[in-house]
Amino acid sequence: MRLLNRPLAFILAAALIAASVVIIAEVIGFAAHRSPLLVHWTTWYHWAQNTRWDAFVVRVWSAVLIAVGMLILLLELKPRRVTRLPLRSGDDATDAAVTRRGLAGMLRAAATGVDGVSSATVKVRRRRASVTAASAARGRATATALTEPLTQALRSRLDSLGLRHPPRLKVHVIPRSR
After folding, report:
1. 81-113 pLDDT, tens per residue?
2. Which of 9, 36, 146, 173 has the fewest beta carbons under 10 Å from its own?
3. Which residues pair with 129 in a beta bridge?
4. Which domain holds residue 94?
5. CA separation (Å) from 127 to 53, 84, 165?
6. Kind of pairing, strands 128-135 and 168-174?
7. What residues have CB less than 8 Å from 133, skipping those under 6 apart?
8. Do 8 and 43 sit in the same domain of this protein?
9. Domain finish residue from 17, 52, 77
10. Cα–Cα nearest to 97, from 76, 83, 108
């Protein structure tokens, strides 16, 4: 939802500016000519004079607008996805963090730096980092043997970052396919 906030705010601002210009033009036009200028609003005015607040159409539109407003409010109140993982610091005034994408890149570099690993795929979530590494050699025995050194290298890299709450590490090594 946060991705849509800026474009929606721009569209809403543009619509409000356009409506304000139309209202100003209508006020000036009505003062000068005693008739609508751009929008034929007198029919709306007469409809509003003849419609009571407890009419069915007013209740339906009120319910629809309340439902839309509540939906937007609930979407905005939903906690947003954590994109930064905080780092430990000696001072409370210091706010340092690493993004999930940055952490994934660091873990990928650490994984491919281990001898015998040809490539790695890393997914970092709030509480867990999943690393799937491809072994340079064929065979399950080789892939299984790489799991421990790879886990140690990744754990060492996570510890060197000094994350406040480091994610749990899940390492999976697959043998090279033909």
Report:
1. 778 888 888 787 888 888 899 999 999 999 998
2. 9
3. 124, 169
4. 85-174
5. 52, 12, 8
6. parallel
7. 111, 112, 114, 117, 119, 120, 121, 146, 150, 171, 172, 173, 174
8. yes
9. 77
10. 83
